[in-house]
Amino acid sequence: MTHVVTEACIRCKYTDCVDVCPVDAFREGPNFLVIDPDLCIDCAVCVPECPVEAILLDEDVPADQQDFIPLNAELSAIWKPITRTRTPLPDAEAWAGVSGKRAELLRDAPGSGKAEESSADSPAAEEPA
C-alpha cells in the first residue's frame, strides 16, 4: 500500500504535505505533486496536511481516479524530490474546488522550458473566474 496524490492537487500544488514526510517521497511537477510509491511508508502523516484533500491511500482512490495510481509512479521516476514547503501556485485558491482538471496537468519538470500538457481523456476544466 502507498498513498497517492489525486486530481484535486492539479493547479493548486499546496506543499504543506512535504514537510511532514519522513522519507521525502514527494516529487514536484509544474502544477502537481506526486508520491513515489517505492519510498512511501504508508505513515499517513501527509494526509491531514493537504488543504484540498488530494492525498488518499491507494485502496481508497475512487474508481474515476484510479489512473492517478500509475501516474504517481510514472511521474515520480521523472520529477525531482521536494522536501520543503513552498508557496502554492498563484491561482491555487481559485482552482481548489474545481473538478475535471486532468487536462490541466503539466508533465514536464519545473525548469525544463517545456509545458506539454497531459494527454488525459477528461475534458479540460474551465478557467475559474
The span between the termini is: 38 Å
Query: Oligomeric state of the chains?
Result: single chain
Q: Give a count of the beta strands, DSSP E runs of length 2 or more.
A: 5
User: Sheet with the most strands?
Assistant: 3 strands, antiparallel
Task: Tell me the name of the CATH class.
Answer: Alpha Beta
Strand order of the largest sheet: 3-2-5
Secondary-structure element sequence? EHEEEHEH
Rounded to the nearest angstrom, the radius of gyration is 13 Å
Derived from helix and strand composition plus strand pairing, the structural class reads little secondary structure
Count of all domains:
1
Integer average pLDDT: 87
Shape: globular
Q: Would you tell me which CATH topology applies?
A: Alpha-Beta Plaits
Share of β-strand residues? 5-15%
Second rung of CATH, namely the architecture: 2-Layer Sandwich
Low-pLDDT windows of residues: 112-129
Q: Helix count, per DSSP?
A: 3
Bin the helical content: 10-25%
Offer a concise description of the structure.
The protein is mostly loops and 129 residues long. It has helices spanning 16-20, 68-76, 92-95, and strands at residues 3-5, 26-28, 33-35, 55-57, 80-81. The strands form two sheets. It has a three-stranded antiparallel beta sheet, covered by helices on one side. The protein has a two-stranded antiparallel ribbon with strand order 1-4.
